[in-house]
Amino acid sequence: MSKKLILTAALLSLATPAFAADIIEPAPVVKVLIVPAPIFTWTGFYIGAHGGGAWSKWSGMDPTDPLAGWSSVTASGGVVGGQIGGNYQISNFVVGLEGTGACSSVTLNAGGPFGGGAGFNLSLKNGYMATVAGRFGVAFDRVPLYAKGGAAFTRDKYSANNGLAGALAGSANGSFNRTGWLAGGGVEWMFMPNWSVRAEYTTISASAASMSSR
Asked: Do 82 and 103 touch, CB atoms closer than 8 A?
């Protein structure tokens, strides 16, 4: 009787450590890598294209009657070109510098727009526009509102004739360069990484002219 009790106690003592080891085995630790969301910024360089409508106003004097004073005419057309620049964002404020260049189809064809008399014809065409401007705005995440101002350069072509024939016929054509200033503003939207679209209105005032004729 006593031998059986001793054997049973020995078996229990051997089995107990193994059973205890199965219970306290630690569970595997799973590490989760948390990647922070990238911080959006307008800082960087860019290049792009633009197009739209343009309206131009020319002022001048009647070539046949200098005493008549100054008159002005308006014309409209389209522009297409490109831009290059850079931005730097500080908190919610964005500053930048931008250069643009555009070809223009703004053309006026009229008879005597400055009172040149019967038969007088004058054609004026804006050939191109170029600007260098600073930009300053406030960014609401991917949508900045901005204002801009700077210098503008434009070249106009002209041709004129008096509508007469024979020895009395006369004509002239040439071009003139003008410089001035610009002011404007707009809103931009980055709709996907590295791609944005904007709507902008700009006024250019160019009065000083350097003329060439032939």
From this structure: no
Q: CA 73 to CA 55: how far, in whole Å?
A: 11
Give how far Cα 8 sits from Cα of 14, 18, 21, 90, 91, Å. Answer: 10, 16, 21, 81, 78
Partnered with residue 172 across adjacent β-strands are 160
Let me know: does 110 contact 122? Beta carbons within 8 Å: yes
Reading the block at residue 208, the tokens are 């000083």
d(CA 112, CA 109) in angstroms, rounded, equals 9
Q: Rounded to whole angstroms, how far apart are CA atoms 173 and 171?
A: 7
Residue 189: what residue type? W
Place of tokens 């700009």: 202
119-144 pLDDT tens trace:
667 788 888 899 999 999 999 999 99
Statement: the pTM of the whole predicted model exceeds 0.90:
no
Say which residue the tokens 């600007």 belong to: 131
Q: In the chain, at which residue ranges do the beta strands (DSSP E only) sit?
A: 44-61, 70-90, 93-104, 107-111, 121-140, 143-161, 171-192, 195-213
- Dump pLDDT digits (tens) for 81-100: 999 999 999 999 999 999 99
